[in-house]
TrEMBL record, chain A:
Keywords: CBS domain
Cyclic nucleotide-binding domain sequence ranges: 18-115
PANTHER family: CBS DOMAIN-CONTAINING PROTEIN, CBS DOMAIN-CONTAINING PROTEIN CBSX3, MITOCHONDRIAL
Sequence ranges assigned to domain CBS in this UniProt record: 159-215, 223-286
Stated name of the protein: CBS domain-containing protein
Keyword Endoplasmic reticulum (UniProt): no
A family per Pfam: DUF294_C
Organism for this UniProt entry: Humibacillus xanthopallidus
A single MF term (Gene Ontology): [protein-PII] uridylyltransferase activity
InterPro entries referenced in this protein's UniProt entry, alphabetically: CBS_dom, CBS_dom_sf, cNMP-bd_dom, cNMP-bd_dom_sf, Diverse_CBS-Domain, DUF294_put_nucleoTrafse_sb-bd, GlnD_Uridyltrans_N, RmlC-like_jellyroll
Gene3D superfamilies according to UniProt: CBS-domain, Jelly Rolls
Lineage: Bacteria, Bacillati, Actinomycetota, Actinomycetes, Micrococcales
UniProtKB/TrEMBL annotation, chain B:
Chain segments carrying region Disordered: 14-35
CDD domains the UniProt entry points to: DEDDh
GO cellular component labels: cytosol
InterPro entries recorded: Ribonucl_H, RNaseH-like_sf, RNaseH_sf
Domain of life: Bacteria
Protein name: DNA polymerase-3 subunit epsilon
Domain Exonuclease: 46-220
Keywords: Exonuclease, Hydrolase, Nuclease
A single GO molecular function term of this UniProt record: 3'-5' exonuclease activity
Upper classification of the organism: Bacteria, Bacillati, Actinomycetota, Actinomycetes, Micrococcales
Length: 623, 231
């Protein structure tokens, strides 16, 4: 015989927002796991610092939620739910008091976790309660507060004159004359008012004079067709990112209803005016450097650029991308210098970066993580060449200020310098026969990106990962466990948990249970759904797009990730200025009360994301 | 003190005799077990809120149509134990269908009265019965048990209607207005939500919730025994 339905409870739940999406049969089961409590007006249902094991839904009556300073946070009547933030013995951050005689439906935490796993929308609903406050904090951060900060300038405000244009059928000589008359280094080529191409000084040199083309050649034959463009509402920061990563110096700004009407041209010189230490030039200079000594000198410009960017109120995400672009350029140039010294490679290969650099999240002082994927055509006689390449690049990076990986994840380690087929076997082992220790060490290999060489080799590995990771239940469970292993440094009574001993005594580790936990959670989300994204923020967005996270939870994670990294950047910029090596350990005395409060919120988001990932990938009984 | 203990012993002896007469099964187990003692505090008291739908008010002539019950453990209602059972009856439901909404067709899908009694006895073992106007429930269950199994069913009960009159009298000391003790009115008085009446399980749950609110009023948060509830 089926269990009796309890219509008064099921009907009620079905009308409440968090449960609206849960099918009736599940609600019936849910109702049977609840108990009912009565609380007289004035009863304290939860109190700050005390943990509980239950989620409450107000059936009738009303409750009031206040924070530890007595500030009213929320007041709710019938249908209000609370308790999810203090589950499993975690300290509550709120007092919850019945302000009317209230009847409460009470759900044990285990049942709540099961519900939230089966119906992510339910779990997401509850984490929204924190969300609005954290988002509010981010908006109040300096980089958003000072909208006039130069890097936030809209491109429409940077364009200083009408675009100088020509048409595709004009001759190269006419184009050159126009450029000389207007004293510009580039022209936009238009057809019927729409942008079709771009011609630069450099093009005239390399594609016309050096190639011996006649000056009557039409512009359309030598222009760069369909160039990369920017929009008038893009901000300077984005433009710098784009030009830095592509190593280009001219960017047409287009608009209009068709999005192809030229509005003007922005050059790296325009951006130079915005700021003195410009990463675009650093990347350009690195690409031109002719020896290791020059690279070492150039790389010393990076800390100053970071300091400058922090001052300009760039976002942590933007700075991560710029630091990565500089790191990529250095690595690429070192490989170029190595190939010049060692001669051309005997067979195809890919130089791969792993971890934070692969995710475009490199920070100041990051150590190097790299590997070599060599074509299966390689013969044993070819291998010494790759060993020499690895040594050249790894040592070069050390000289440029990128410390060796303490875990020896570098191409100099023969284990990480292998033919494709061996890499395939290794990934198969990691995914299909997971060993907990190995998973801990292998996690960064699932964030991989080619910076030089034949990316089709790496694409085979990525394809293998996308295909097999979603099936690797135990692999994912172990990965989820690792993601939840480092708790955010939050303790009882909302206090921070400080490092107890060692060099970082009495500081807060922003990385382990902080932004790095977000990295790990996002990785599990991406791998479990076979998503190709590598950077943490794109993984979060993609996981939300694939239905694995609600938009709200995704927004929370984005915000928490950005906030914690931003606090770290402020700390690191301070260290750089003081001539100290940048690290992740911040003393609470360094933080403003604003930063402390919102860091707690961010850590809370991290904690709940860790719980969710743990519950959606249970390890089961077989380990 | 001694007398009351003798009284308890006497009742238990009689109950044990009946247990010997009952056929093996939940009813016999129930008769052989002890209900919670009178000095049990409400915070530990285990009850079974129960409501019967019947064809009328006379246990001798009217029949049980359905039963709904839900356990109360201390000051919490455990929805996991909620049950509603329909009884297959030979009698015509007739007029009473207008009140409780149970039609002859629905009853045809029910269980035998004996099965129903055994299910109730099993759920009630170790618990005190809780009902609104409990005499109806205890009277019907005992009479039915005597007919079906040859033994009466002695039941320790707490009556929320009685408790409500105490809640109201402690307020006014006046005569109560007519209808003040009805389940829905009593609930409204204590700020509990309005339920659709006259389905056995809903009424049992409504009664259980009412009990929690009444205990809160009457005890004022201080210890209170079963005996004090039955005063």
């Amino acid at each position: 015989m089926a269990d009796a339905e309890i219509p008064e409870v099921t009907d009620f739940l079905a009308e409440q927002a968090p449960f609206a999406a849960v099918p009736r049969t599940d609600l019936e089961r849910l109702a049977r796991r609840m108990t009912v409590r009565y609380a007289r007006r004035g009863t304290l249902l939860m109190s700050v610092g005390r943990g509980n094991d239950e989620v409450f839904v107000v059936r009738s009556g009303a409750v009031q939620i206040t924070d530890d300073s007595g500030t009213l946070v929320d007041r709710g009547e019938e249908g209000t739910a609370f308790g999810t933030t203090a589950l499993d013995g975690r300290p509550s951050r709120f007092d919850v008091e019945a302000i009317e005689d209230s009847l409460l439906l009470v759900l044990p935490s285990a049942a709540f976790h099961e519900l939230a796993t089966a119906h992510p929308a339910v779990g997401d609903f509850f984490s929204q309660q924190r969300a609005s406050r954290l988002r509010h904090a981010l908006q109040a951060m300096p980089h958003a507060q000072r909208r006039t900060a130069v890097l936030q300038t809209r491109l429409r405000d940077l364009v200083r004159r009408e675009p100088i244009t020509t048409t595709g059928d004009a001759t190269v000589r006419e184009a050159a004359q126009l450029m000389a008359r207007e004293q510009v280094s580039s022209l936009l080529v238009v057809d019927g008012g729409r942008l079709t191409g771009i011609v630069t000084d450099r093009d005239l040199r390399t594609r016309v004079l050096a190639a011996g083309l006649d000056s009557s050649t039409p512009v359309s034959a030598m222009m760069t067709a369909d160039p990369v463009t920017a929009g008038p509402d893009d901000i300077a920061m984005e433009l710098i990112l784009e030009m830095t990563s592509r190593n280009i110096h001219h960017m047409p700004v287009v608009g209009g209803t068709d999005g192809r009407t030229p509005l003007g041209m922005l050059t790296s010189t325009d951006l130079m005016r915005l700021e003195r230490a410009n990463p675009i030039h650093l990347v350009g200079d690195i690409a031109k450097a002719d020896d290791l000594g020059t690279l070492v000198v150039l790389s010393q410009r990076l800390p100053r650029i970071i300091d400058q960017l922090v001052h300009e109120d760039a976002t942590a995400d933007g700075i991560g991308r710029i630091v990565t672009a500089v790191g990529d350029a250095l690595e690429q140039r070192l490989i170029g210098l190595a190939e010049r010294e060692l001669g051309p490679s005997p067979t195809a290969y890919a130089w791969v970066v792993l971890g934070s650099q692969a995710r475009l999240e490199q920070g100041p002082g990051s150590d190097q993580d790299n590997a070599l994927v060599i074509s299966d055509d390689a013969t044993p006689a070819d291998l010494p060449w790759f060993e020499a390449l690895a040594r050249f690049v790894v040592e070069g990076l050390v000289a440029c200020g990128y410390p060796r990986c303490p875990g020896d994840v570098m191409a100099t380690n023969p284990q990480w310098r292998r033919p494709l087929r061996e890499w395939r076997r290794t990934f198969t082992q990691w995914i299909d026969e997971p060993v907990p220790d190995a998973i801990l060490r292998s996690a960064i290999f699932f964030d991989l990106r080619t910076v030089h060489g034949d990316d089709t080799l790496v694409e085979e590995l990525r394809e293998q990962i996308r295909r097999s990771a979603p099936r690797g239940t135990r692999f994912l469970a172990h990965l989820a466990r690792n993601a939840a292993a480092n708790e955010p440094p939050l303790g009882f009574f909302r206090g921070f948990v400080l490092e107890r001993e060692g060099a970082h005594k009495d500081t807060l580790d922003l990385k382990r249970g902080g932004f790095h936990a977000v990295v790990e959670v996002a990785r599990v989300h991406a791998l479990s759904r076979g998503l190709p994204q590598v950077s943490t923020s794109s993984r979060i967005t993609a996981a939300a797009g694939a239905g694995g996270l609600s938009d709200e939870t995704a927004a929370d994670l984005h915000d928490a990730f950005e906030f914690i990294r931003y606090v770290r950047l402020l700390h690191q910029a301070k260290q750089i200025r003081a001539g100290e090596p940048p690290d992740n350990f911040v003393a609470p005395s360094e933080l403003s009360s604003f930063e402390k409060r919102h860091l707690r919120d961010a850590f809370q988001v991290v904690r709940s994301a860790q719980q969710t990932i743990l519950h959606s990938h249970p390890l089961g009984h077989v380990t | 003190m001694i007398f009351s203990r003798l009284g308890v012993d006497h009742r238990r002896a009689r109950q044990a005799r009946w247990a010997g007469q009952a056929p093996p099964g939940p009813v016999r187990d129930y008769l052989g077990s002890a209900p919670p003692g009178p000095r049990t505090d409400v915070s530990d008291l285990r009850l079974l809120a129960l409501d019967l739908e019947t064809t009328g008010l006379d246990p001798r002539t009217d029949r049980i149509l359905s039963v709904g019950f839900v356990p109360v453990d201390g000051l919490r209602i455990s929805l996991a134990g909620a049950e509603q059972l329909l009884c297959r009856a030979d009698v015509e439901v007739g007029q009473s269908a207008a009140v409780h909404g149970i039609t002859d067709d629905a009853l045809a899908g029910g269980i035998e009265l004996r099965d129903l009694l055994e299910r109730v006895a099993a759920a009630l073992t170790g618990r005190v019965l809780l009902a609104h106007h409990a005499a109806i429930e205890t009277g019907f269950l005992s009479a039915a048990c005597e007919r079906e199994l040859g033994v009466p069913l002695p039941i320790t009960a707490v009556d929320t209607m009685e408790l409500q009159s105490r809640v109201l009298r402690s307020h006014s000391g006046e005569d109560l207005p007519p209808g003040a003790l009805r389940l829905g009115t009593a609930r409204a008085h204590l700020g509990l939500p309005r339920y659709a009446a006259h389905e056995a399980l809903t009424d049992a749950l409504a009664c259980a919730e009412l009990y929690l609110a009444q205990v809160d009023r009457l005890s004022g948060g201080r210890p209170m025994t079963l005996k004090a509830l039955q005063r």
